[in-house]
Every structure is written in C-alpha cells, then in structure tokens.
Design goal:
With 577 residues, the protein is α/β, with parallel strands linked by helices. The chain has 23 helices and 15 strands. Among the domains are: 118 residues, BRCT domain (Rossmann fold, 3-Layer(aba) Sandwich); 86 residues, Orthogonal Bundle (DNA polymerase, domain 1). Bound molecules: 2'-deoxycytidine-5'-triphosphate (DCP) and magnesium ion. It catalyses: DNA(n) + a 2'-deoxyribonucleoside 5'-triphosphate = DNA(n+1) + diphosphate.
C-alpha cells in the first residue's frame, strides 16, 4: 500500500524546514498505513450519535486523503473521538499516558473533516483543553504544528456540519400560544396525542375528499394542540378556546372528545369502506387523492380491483413508456396521474419552473408505471427503522464521494425529527466548494443516480430534476436545487423510497430546513417569512421580497436568525399529527 498522501500538500512542502508531525501508526513499522484508524469513545454520546459516527467512519473511504476505519483499540488509533471533556471521565476509558500520545478530538472534527474533504487541524477541536497541545502535535492533518493560523477550519465554506450532540437547546422565546408553528415547540408525541390522532383522521378524510379549506383548518388546529403543553381537561377549555386557529367547531370536537373519549365522526370515517379504500390506494406510489377517488368511482375497493383496473391498460402503458425519452419521466413529458405525488412534492417545495429534461445516454433506469407501483407496494408500505436509514445514508455518502469527493450530506425528513420509523429517506447533499456557485453540485444528481443504478442500489427513478432555468422573478435562486426521487435497495433488503436533494452551497441550509419538515412547520415558516418579515423562504433560498436580495445562511441556526426566529431543534418541529 502506498504511503498516505497528505492533504494540503502545498503547506507541507512550504514548511519542510519546520518540525515534522508524527507519522501515522503502521502495523509492521515500515511505511505508514493509508487508512486513518479512528477510535470512538461512546460515553456521553447517544445511541443515534454513536451510530451516525460509526456510519460516517465506516463508510468514509472518500479519497486518498480521507480514508477512515474504526479500530476497537485506543492504542491502535490515529485519532480518538470523544464528547468527554473532563480528564477524570476520560480516564475511565483511556489511560492518561496513552491519551497524551494521541489527538483527542470532538466529533465535530470528524464531521468537519468530511465536510471539508480533508483532514482538518485538530487544535480547534481538542476535546480536553489540558490536552490541547498534545492533540495539535499528534494531529493527523497535513499541517505543521507551529502554524497557528492553519489550525482553524476553512472559513470559505458554508458547509461546516456539526454533530447532533452539539445542537443548541431550544430557544427560550418559543411560545405555545403563537399562531405560527415555527415559533412553537412541537414534540413528536405530545401530551394530547390520542386526541390529535382522532382529529388527524378527520383531517385526512377532508384531504382525500378534496376539501382543502377544512383540511387546512385541521392542520392548524392539530399544530396548536401538538404544542399545547398541558393535558387537556374541562378546566382548560377556556384557555384552549383563546388560542389561535381553535374556533367554535374545533372546541365542540374537543368537548365531545373530553366527554366520550372519542369523536364520533372520526370513528365513522375510520370504519367507512370509502375512507379505507382511498387511504389504501394513496399508499400506492404516485396515486394521489384525485386518482384514488377516480379508482373508487370506477368500482375499485381493494388492491385486487386496482390490479384488474390497470391490467386492462398495460398495453397503453407500454406505449406511453415508449414515448418517454430514455425512460426518464420529467414534469414536462409526464402526464400520467402516477406523477401526481412527486409533482405535489415539487410544488410544495416551491419549484415553480418546470425543470429542464435531463437525458441519460445510458443506462435506462426504469420509471414507475402503474404495474410497477403495484409490484412495489408490499415493500414501500413498510416503514424504515432508524438503523436502516443510517445504513442507506452511509452507502449513499460512500457512492457520492466516489462520484464527487468532499461532498457533505444530511439526513432530513421525519428521521431528523426523531421518528423511529420513516416512510422514506430524505437526504440533502451539498459540496463545500463555493466557486463557481453550484458547480460542484450541478449534474451530480444524474451522475450519482447512474452510479447507484449500475451498482444495483437504485432500481427505479421516479423523477429527476436539474437545476432550474433562470427565473426573472427569482434570479438569485435559479440554480439552487436538483432532485432525484428514487427506489433504493440495500443488497438483499426491502426496496425503499429515497429522495436525494442536491443543493448549491448557498442553498444548503435552507434545503436542510425546508426538507426537515414537518409539513405544517414548513408552511408556517413560509407564512411567517412573508407576513412578518417581508421575506420569501423556501427550500431553495431566502430572499427579501422588496428587492429580491438573496440572504445566504451559513448554518441552520443562521436560517432561523435571518428569519428573526428563535432556534427550534428538529425534534421539536413535529407540528403535524
Ligand atoms: N415537505 C413539505 N410539504 C409537503 C411534503 C414535504 O414541506 N407537503 C417537506 C417537509 C417534510 C419533508 O419535506 O418533512 C420530507 O417529506 P416526506 O414526505 O418525506 O415527509 P417526512 O419525512 O416528514 O415523513 P415520512 O417519514 O413519511 O417520510
Ligand atoms: Mg421522509
């Protein structure tokens, strides 16, 4: 194995006369190992944090300068990662004499090194202040110890990721009486969750029946109840009555619930054939409420009926497919109703311009037809446990970095809000290189998807958008996001929906906020921005309404700061049922 190539080679060669850093440990004492051995001290890290660090290390064979592997022994480690900051606590896990021989860094060093695409100097990330100097000296980065300027992470990048353990606590300003979900704390499970689940049935029925106004009222009311901090009782009705979005109709629902422990209409809806069929049909990928109602009107009640319904049109379907260039569906070419779901999603994320069609010269990645959607149903119906989300993420990050080294990525969606089971995996992908804007990310969606398909990891592609054509009303945002909505499968695993969102650096943090959700939280962010701040917010960016000026956040907290909002941690953004 060839000696590991040092990152920042220019700074190494320019400082040849300076004291040399320690060589990486090697098994046979001859030449240094190429891979960087990482030991993770689990103390003070949550199970999720440990899992994501393991995934990051395990799968970060990024390029020659970033190639990690886990080691079970601190003695063999080239770097020790820990959230422990006290000597006494660390000594429970690592002998002090050994600790002095190793760089002891916080998880942020790992996140930021991956983000920067190179090993960063350790000084800023020393986990114990009393081991700062030893950590700097033993650091595996390519820089010289004496160069203090080099011990800061690069300042030209917007994409310094942070480990979840470093996330700040919720702002003290959050107010459960606010009319905006983005100003309230909404936990995954609230104290009145059973009531919320009953209201959610009525809300869903309104949505399925295309009663948008009523569905929106329920969204708002459910959001208020999610943030209400007390168990609802008769004594509290007056207080709840005075909350925004809770009108007389909602109060009568709540009263009924308090009297009977349930809401009759919710019960009736849940037991109705129509509701059950429409709910089931919309579980089929691509079938929205309109198509579900159409199927029901055509006499379909079960999936077998739907199979029969589409069975007669398989030939038409084949013809329609043949019309689509290279099998790739785009918003422009796709008028199949099965596109409704991703079209919904695209519009919800305010992608107002239809994307340019992208073409694959090779290979042809299958798209979703009614028959395929029915075939996928058993797999896509199954929720995804957190561990598998992490595993999928790690594989995608590995492949991503093979296509374009130095990329960063964040799992967003329900997973990030703390859901134990997710409907799909949503990942925002970016590259820290700012100049020229978006260049490192542009075209990445099709390249990554092709690679995943070639490796059998992606089986279908429902939708692929490129960066948008310039839009005069929104010039600054025009090329901010690419998207690939895919069916992904780990070897021998269940097929899963995976959405990949590629963001230019200046749109990375708005994309992270915009895709973390929940839906009502996002809607209220947009409302807040427009009504209270004269700003336009969506996942592609943040602009001043008056002059179109683009505001570029440098972190997720910065998005909240620019919007004049207190920080809401992802796990408190669960404003939907
Ligand atoms: N989103 C949105 N509005 C929508 C749909 C989605 O703002 N109508 C944003 C917020 C969502 C995020 O995108 O949280 C991801 O969408 P998903 O449909 O994947 O929803 P979740 O990830 O929240 O839940 P699930 O576990 O079902 O995937
Ligand atoms: Mg999701």
């Amino acid at each position: 194995m060839s000696p590991r190539k040092r990152s920042r080679s220019s700074s190494i060669s320019s400082s040849d006369s300076q004291p040399r850093k320690r060589q990486r440990s090697s098994s046979d004492g001859s030449e240094p190992d190429k891979r960087l051995k990482v030991y993770i001290v689990q103390a003070k890290l949550s199970a999720d944090e440990v899992a994501s660090l393991y995934a990051l290390v395990d799968h970060h064979s990024v390029n020659e300068s970033l190639d990690f592997e886990l080691t079970p022994s601190p003695r063999d480690a080239d770097v020790i990662v820990t959230a422990v900051h006290m000597r006494k606590r660390l000594e429970r896990h690592i002998d002090w004499a050994l600790a002095k021989e190793k760089p002891i860094v916080t998880p942020d060093w790992l996140f930021n090194s991956v983000s920067a695409g190179e090993l960063l100097p350790c000084g800023k990330f020393a986990a114990l202040s009393e081991l700062h100097d030893e950590t700097v000296h033993n650091c595996p980065d390519g820089d010289d110890d004496s160069d203090t300027a080099a011990s800061s992470p690069p300042t030209d990048s917007l994409l310094h990721l942070r480990s979840p353990s470093q996330e700040p606590a919720a702002s003290a300003d959050l107010d459960w009486k606010s009319r905006y979900a983005c100003c309230r704390a909404s936990p995954l499970v609230c104290v009145n969750q059973h009531l919320v689940s009953r209201l959610a049935i009525i809300r869903r029925s309104r949505e399925l029946e295309d009663d948008k106004i009523s569905a929106l009222s329920y969204d708002h009311a459910i959001g208020m109840i999610k943030s209400y901090p007390y168990e609802l009782t008769e004594d509290r009705l007056n207080e709840v009555n005075s909350l925004p979005h809770i009108g007389p109709k909602m109060i009568s629902r709540i009263e009924e619930y308090l009297d009977n422990g349930d809401i009759e209409e919710a019960e009736t809806i849940a037991n109705s054939q129509r509701y059950q069929s429409l709910e089931a049909f919309t579980d089929l990928y691509g079938v929205g409420a309109t198509t579900a109602r159409k199927l029901y009107a055509a006499g379909c009640r079960t999936f077998e009926d739907v199979e029969r319904y589409y069975g007669v049109s398989y030939e038409d379907e084949a013809e329609e497919e043949a019309d689509l260039d290279d099998g790739l569906k785009t918003e422009e070419t796709d008028d199949l109703h099965l596109a409704s779901q991703h079209n919904d999603r695209a519009s919800q994320h305010n992608d107002r311009k239809p994307p340019r069609p992208l073409r694959f010269a090779k290979p042809k990645i299958p798209s979703i037809t009614p028959r395929v959607a029915l075939d996928l149903r058993d797999d896509l119906d199954q929720r995804i446990p957190r561990e598998e989300v992490q595993e999928i993420f790690a594989v995608i990050v590995r492949e991503l970095n093979a296509v374009r080294p130095g990329c960063v990525a964040t799992i967003v969606g329900g997973y990030r809000r703390g859901k134990s089971l997710s409907g799909d995996v949503d990942i925002v992908i970016g590259h820290p290189n700012l100049s020229p804007t978006g260049k490192q990310v542009k075209g990445l969606s099709s390249r990554l998807v092709e690679r995943l398909y070639e490796r059998g990891l992606v089986t279908h592609l429902m939708y692929l958008s490129g960066f948008h054509a310039p839009d005069v009303t929104r010039a600054a945002h025009w090329d901010a996001l690419e998207k690939a909505l895919t069916v992904f499968v780990l070897p021998g695993g269940v097929r899963r929906r995976v959405d990949l969102i590629f963001a230019a650096p200046e749109a990375y943090w708005t994309a992270v906020v915009g895709w973390t959700g929940s839906k009502t939280f996002e809607r209220d962010l947009r409302r807040w921005a427009a009504e209270q701040k004269e700003l336009k917010f969506d996942s592609t960016g943040l602009t001043r309404r008056s002059n179109g000026e683009l505001l570029v956040p440098t972190s997720e907290e910065d998005v909240f700061r620019l919007l004049g909002l207190g920080w809401v941690p992802p796990t408190l953004r669960n404003a939907d049922a």
